Amino acid sequence: MISVKNISVSYKKENEKRLFKKSREIVIEDLSFSLDKGECLGILGESGSGKSTLGKVICGLLKPDCGDVFINGAPLYENKKNKKKCLVSVVFQDYTSSTNPRMPVREIIAESFSKTGKENKKDDILNRTISYLTAVGLSAEYLNRFPHELSGGQLQRVCIARALATHAEIIVFDEAISSLDAHTQVQIMDLLKEIQIEKNLTYIFITHDLTSVTYFCDRINFLYKGTFVEEIKVSKLSDVSNNYAKKLLYSVL
Ligand SMILES: Nc1ncnc2c1ncn2[C@@H]1O[C@H](COP(=O)(O)OP(=O)(O)OP(=O)(O)O)[C@@H](O)[C@H]1O
Q: What residues does the ABC transporter domain cover (predicted)?
């Protein structure tokens, strides 16, 4: 369903004193993986290993220097039309900055409907917005609230509802639950699991935290300086052999 083939990403080194021909820092190097529908992959790496950069490439926000992301066989970057109907959505860690503070909940969610390209009637939009709110455990009474009138957990649920409303088949969670308190994390994980099973969604969890990965994922890829150093089934975690992967595991266990 999704296949990432030989992608590399580099950024300009901004702090260099050279005026011309700034050199570039390679952040992702020749990275590949694929995932079937309904599968759940964890991408684990330390800070600065390139996790968020990879997440942005997967969901169509950052064109790689080379390589491409194929969704159901169609290249995401090579063909602009495919980008428009991209089936990948993303939920970021920072729910505050990923929502417009001036938009009420109903607009935050309904914004996604226009991206699906379908003509919508007002009543239809309202009913669909309520159905997505209900799916994430919130009621219609939240429709007119603004982000600052919600708790962190409630606002992250709104972000999840927005991701679902795009009809994405693949959802990337970039540290999406790490900043929530333990109780809310459990609630959101249960909710995500339920939605995944019901809609047979494909999840990619990008994180430095094992909790969500072991709860959801079938396998984990360890990211170190922009390349995967080991891939392992969650059920075989104790057999991890790469030194970096071992260190990372012991530091989070
Ligand atoms: N827009 C950018 N311009 C220049 N360098 C960048 C940019 N975005 C990220 N980087 C650099 O790329 C490297 C990887 O960053 P990235 O955000 O992908 O890491 P990460 O694994 O998600 O880290 P964290 O867990 O701390 O969020 C870092 O060295 C970072 O400074």
A: 2-250
